[in-house]
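User: Fold this one for me? It's TetR/AcrR family transcriptional regulator.
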Amino acid sequence: MAGRPVDHQRRAELLDRVVDYTVEHGFNDLSWRPIAAALDVSPTTLVHRFGSKDQMLQDVLARLRERIFAAVGEVADHRPGLAGAARAVWERTSDPRREAEFRLFFAVYGRALQSPRQFSDFLDHVVADWMASLRDAQGPHADPSTATREATLIIATIRGLLLDLLATGDRARVQDAADHFLSGLQGDL
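Assistant: Here's what I get for TetR/AcrR family transcriptional regulator.
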């Protein structure tokens, strides 16, 4: 007897709700019952849609990554070049309305470094996706090793600034440093 097929639209809608829940509550105590209660579904529905909590967490992280890339891409489309792309990334990630997303991001990052096998998909994408995007922003004629170096510096600097901002809340100081860094990109490229 075959089970009923997965309704992909319903699963996507439910995934978006689970992502919102996880951003708000974190993932350390992620369990079926509280999520199901908050979303007004049964735990069985979650199991049917996601299979396991590990799979649900992987799906949450992938969808969050998709959301961030889509939002940054919309802004970056209006700002050509590496400096424009880097500024778009910074503005999206440092937006106070996105603070919970990036608290979750850094929480997962730390846990992934401690459990790389469990979070291999996250680790495979956490640098590679941004690296590809920032290398592409440098244009087709950029020297590959220079493009990789520039992208690496931007990723590391933005993540460091974002971590500082989340840890201290000192928006003025961190924004000043970000502006200084980003304005330097325009002169170098």
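One thing worth pointing out: Residues 61-188 form one domain.
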